[in-house]
Amino acid sequence: MNHDKIIVIDFGGQYNQLVARRVRECNVYCEIYSYRTPIDDIKAMNPKGIILTGGPSSCYEPGAASCSEELFELGVPILGLCYGAQLMTHILGGKVERASAREYGKTDVTVDNSSALFTDVTKETVCWMSHFDYISELAPGFKSVAVTASCPVAAMENTDKKLYGIQFHPEVLHTPEGSKMLFNFVRGICGCAGTWEMTSFVENQIKEIREKVGDGKVLCALSGGVDSSVAAVLLSKAIGNNLTCVFVDHGLLRKNEGDEVEAVFGPNGNYELNFIRVNAQQRFYEKLKGVTEPEKKRAIIGEEFIRVFEEESKKIGAVDFLVQGTIYPDVVESGLGGESAVIKSHHNVGGLPDTVDFKEIIEPLRLLFKDEVRKAGLELGIPDYLVFRQPFPGPGLGVRIIGEVTEEKVRIVQDADFIFRDEIAKAGLDRDINQYFAALSNMRSVGVMGDERTYDYAIVLRAVKTIDFMTAEAADIPFDVLKTVMTRITNEVRGVNRVMYDITSKPPGTIELE
Ligand code: XMP
Description:
Elements: E1 5-10, H1 16-25, E2 29-34, H2 39-44, E3 49-52, E4 78-81, H3 83-91, E5 95-111, E6 124-137, E7 143-147, E8 155-158, E9 163-166, H4 178-189, H5 198-213, E10 218-221, H6 226-239, E11 243-249, H7 257-265, E12 274-279, H8 281-288, H9 294-316, E13 321-323, H10 328-333, E14 360-362, H11 370-379, H12 384-387, H13 407-426, E15 435-449, E16 452-465, E17 473-474, H14 479-492, E18 496-501
Parallel strand pairs: 1-2, 1-3, 3-4, 4-9, 10-11, 10-13, 11-12, 13-14, 16-18
Antiparallel strand pairs: 5-6, 5-7, 7-8, 8-9, 15-16, 16-17
Helix pairs in contact: 5-6, 5-11, 6-11, 8-9, 13-14
Bound molecules: xanthosine-5'-monophosphate.
């Protein structure tokens, strides 16, 4: 497999995998490495281009993340983004200083269309800025090729050395023409052919899994969600009968979900898999008794999961590998994605117990975003209705119940969620909204029903529009639909007397409510 390769050097910014993903969207293969990677290793990879990412430090401070000056002498085109551009300037003899105010948010920018970075980009366009420091003096040989009202070097280039820098973030959607700029860099300036596709990813993974696993036995943690289903089908294509899928019903699934998963993957389902369903509901409720802290709940659910798998694998005997459907946003938010900060630990990643009875964990989707996982699913021939299923987190309703998780609260949130999903589908909104569900707040308040006073829970409805699940906006659900949902939930779900709609975007909120 001989695809051009772009290397992304990670300096710890939150958007770094987005950079990689935008490169993949240009049909170019891409890998991310820490800034600590030795220069000789980078040379040996023979990249067609290098992108230096953003990062939280100030490049002129002692101990700040840096790279070797030799990198800029390789003759390989390099694009620095935000911190990457500042670092390039700092190392090559220009000046980076602290600005009097942070430049943050959508900003008008004027680009110089004679720069190859800005081919076909509108001269007056919009970009997403997020920086304290700025380039006050260009390094020798560079010229500024974009400006904003407060930033004299919003982009720069030294065409002789094929070095480029952009102060803003072309990788985020808030820079509407950012993808074009990255395309101009990887396909234009670096000259990558654009031969990489999701088929290559699938083929490559199947090949790598076969090499890694050999005749070993593999256990797959199947939840029936998009990620683990794609991981399971990928593994079954690679190793067939050596795969056993274990589906744990932890009692935190959506209403009827256990039976639905069994119908698809079980003995009468669509695939030839070894399928085991473990009904472990009571075991999870027992462990979660009295626990209110969200991270602790995640850790308990994650650990109990692994324990159940260990027990199942012992029954099967000599299991070497465990497969998990971890995807990139899970990795980055758990703080394991290279250099960026921890937001919260996602189940199956940060929640792993210290002692795990498997030789190794395989996470074939670790570098993909949700929509890329769906593309891979379609490549694998998984039916549309499964591929486009909305995401459901590993810890399930455990992250949709504030406070202590009890069987009663699970029942309430399952019933409310069922009604909400039903009404969204009836209103024809299920295709437009990327994720929607009911969660249970821990709030109880006084209400009146008939002539009686009630003191019951408040259900919170959550519905978001998002592309990459890293940022999201609350969906604009018609008020009539919300009112119908409210009426049905308060009438049909025992224990609920209030329904609220959560309009928080991400950030500052998260998508789940925990
Ligand atoms: P948050 O709440 O972090 O959610 O904004 C982003 C996306 O990730 C899903 N999510 C999870 N998925 N294990 C998963 O497999 C988890 O622990 C987990 N927590 C959140 C969430 O449903 C949303 O789609």
